[in-house]
Amino acid sequence: MTDDPESPRPAPPQEVVDAVREAVEAGDSARLVDLLEPLHAADVADILEQIRAGERAALLRLWGREIDGDILSEIDESIREEVIESLAPDVLADAVRELDSDDVVDILEDLEEPAQARILGALDREDRAAVEQSLSYPEYSAGRLMQREVVSAPLHWTVGETIDFLRSEEWLPDQFYHVILVDPRMKPIGYVTLGRILSARRDVRLSDLAEESFRVIAATEAEADVAYIFTQYHLISLPVTDQAGRLVGVITIDDAMSVLDEEHEEDMLRMAGVGEESSLSDGVWDTVRQRFPWLAVNLVTANISALVIGMFENTIAVIVALAALMPIVASMGGNAGTQSLTVAVRALATRDLTASNAKRVVWRELVVGLLNGVGFAVVMGLVAWAFYGRDVWLGAVIGAAIVVNLVVAALSGVLIPLVLHRLKLDPALASGTFVMTLTDVVGFFAFLGLATMVLL
Amino acid sequence: MTDDPESPRPAPPQEVVDAVREAVEAGDSARLVDLLEPLHAADVADILEQIRAGERAALLRLWGREIDGDILSEIDESIREEVIESLAPDVLADAVRELDSDDVVDILEDLEEPAQARILGALDREDRAAVEQSLSYPEYSAGRLMQREVVSAPLHWTVGETIDFLRSEEWLPDQFYHVILVDPRMKPIGYVTLGRILSARRDVRLSDLAEESFRVIAATEAEADVAYIFTQYHLISLPVTDQAGRLVGVITIDDAMSVLDEEHEEDMLRMAGVGEESSLSDGVWDTVRQRFPWLAVNLVTANISALVIGMFENTIAVIVALAALMPIVASMGGNAGTQSLTVAVRALATRDLTASNAKRVVWRELVVGLLNGVGFAVVMGLVAWAFYGRDVWLGAVIGAAIVVNLVVAALSGVLIPLVLHRLKLDPALASGTFVMTLTDVVGFFAFLGLATMVLL
């Protein structure tokens, strides 16, 4: 126990990072150990992520023996493989052996074959079997997320029997918050919080202390559902069952919190058309590769807009001011579309947008698009009239085009993610690019088309 | 305890929502109670959010007596006031009295004065004092988030003394996962997990069971820091101290998880320029009001782009194809800028982007922008040459403009959020609009400017 509680200064402070760098540069391993020793594994992992690749290799060489499993499990995937490969086999074996099964699985998932084999080889037979069993569940499933170390008790036990059992048990998980009640076939049928066990008399039956609401999840269910259930029902742990309904593991809230965080990151990155695996520690080439595909899609869609504009070259040749004004229509649409889109993607992720209210939400977006459209049409119509040749009809044309484009933007912003969701695709999947393309094309077409009809 | 664990089907299924609606329409309160009774408060809240305002009022009239505090605490802020106002005073009083202090504070924060007074009036004196004390901490601070119900013990107690104390204590919080060790001045100095207490012999001292790492947070610290500490260090509960360092409350992980979720939402909505308070249950006018401001900003910035284009009207009048091609340059920049921006905003939120690596990340973005720029410049240069008059120089101009704009996009995508962060503003704050403006202006200027110099 520390006498002085660590102050909650987020992240390892800059001075520590700088001092670590100096120690590494000086090759001063004693100083390095002094600096890193008091830090939480998560902070050590952050330092490893923040320094340059060369410094990282030097640090690991100087400090290699001391690295423990928690650091491997905290470190970002983008550099984990590099770190694991730099460790001596016996150091790696020691590091991995102290981890719970879910953490080992989490590390293994993202590694290439040879690194995986090195880690599996370092485990003793029983742990290896547990890890391999977890890996047999589909990726991103509850089975991959659970830890196999579970504390369970028969329904008929009393508080006293439970306490005696826990006292006699040599090995208990690091983190457990419930005793799960099971029937003779190991089917989970309820759970009791440790707080209730501690505050009850020894002769009280566990079944009388069980929580009112109780949920389990099948090992094959999706990770995203796990995160949802934890947030929706404020759970601390969730028992996992196999096909026969038997208890095979438990998921704790810290794992659910990581999933929630990852899901969110995925949504943001996907909406922006960035590879969802992207990370700040990725190198230049990885980053180029992640971003290239959606930029390529955007190049194609931008050329479609150019074709639309090209259709009206004769109109632009006559009234060149149209060329200056047309991006305004497109840009207002793009902005309004992004607003609707963001709200819809978020609402689908939190499951607030459902079949019950989809029609109402689409309708609301339409009305909002129309109202904002009319508002900005009036303003922009006046601006165009005042500054682009005092032509009332030019003002009318840009106003009408803005109304059309803002309605299309509002509708596509909510319909595109709804359709992606219905097709069982991620609603966030680069929907930004789709919405922008649509509002560009519609914006240019409506504005230049109306201009051709009205102004020529 | 339920005999059959509820299956983890996310959200109340469509059939239940439909059945509830039918019961409300038929005015069948017995059926309504039957339908809602077995549901978790979070699911009842979801149903209330998903039905129309009229149906909601009818439902609450039919079912009013049965509503409990948990439902009020689960319900979305956008309709909470409406629900609270529809309840009879005694129903509201009963509902609020069963809640923990942090939940009451959470409800009160978002209410207008008269509704606040109604709820405070419903509490008994002691609870009211606790709630008012929490409200005296700044908004979005740890003090607002904590529950005041804490289980603590003197450092010198044994396991046996602790268990005897817990058994004799009439009142314990619903959720507690640690016993917090305090010195005689109530300063927290460590904690012991309940699992360790349960598995130790009665004569073991609590101080021998305390967790290795221990953190506290001051009541005045920001909510965002709370969420960060929970994720970074995988905490389950975090003791809160007052200015004198005395234990005044505890924050549990479910509250931290909600904060994390809200922070995510805020980031997404802010980046898109949507009011961060926006919700799917908002009415049309609220939604128009939330979205109008950033659309107005966008109108101004779009007019700046128009001015830039206007500077080159003579060039466009000579080569009309430029009008068709110029949005391609702008759009590629906008897209690339959004990619960098999203990665940077996310990295600032997770505190992966720090002073230690900012220079390196900016540099990486620059190189990535340059490489992607050159790649797409070659492709688009060839396309422009092939389809727009076989003019080598036109291809060269659009290529060069794309390189310039992608470099600017990449840099501004990371620099704008970094500057906002340095200014202690939220990096997500409509940075999308800023980046888009910049890439539009630079794109049009570079392309049309080069064209004027080279092609005329």
From TrEMBL, chains A, B:
Pfam families: CBS, MgtE, MgtE_N. Residues 146-209, 210-266 form the CBS domain. Its main location: membrane. It is found in: Cell membrane; Membrane. Keywords: CBS domain, Cell membrane, Magnesium, Membrane, Metal-binding, Transmembrane, Transmembrane helix, Transport. The keyword Metal-binding applies. The chain crosses the membrane at residues 318-345, 366-387, 393-420, 432-455. CDD domains: CBS_pair_Mg_transporter. InterPro entries: CBS_dom (IPR000644), CBS_dom_sf (IPR046342), Mg_transptr_MgtE_intracell_dom (IPR006668), MgtE_N_sf (IPR038076), MgtE_transporter (IPR006669), SLC41_membr_dom (IPR006667), SLC41_membr_dom_sf (IPR036739). One of its GO terms (molecular function) is magnesium ion transmembrane transporter activity. NCBIfam families: mgtE (TIGR00400). Homodimer. Acts as a magnesium transporter. Belongs to the SLC41A transporter family. This is Magnesium transporter MgtE.
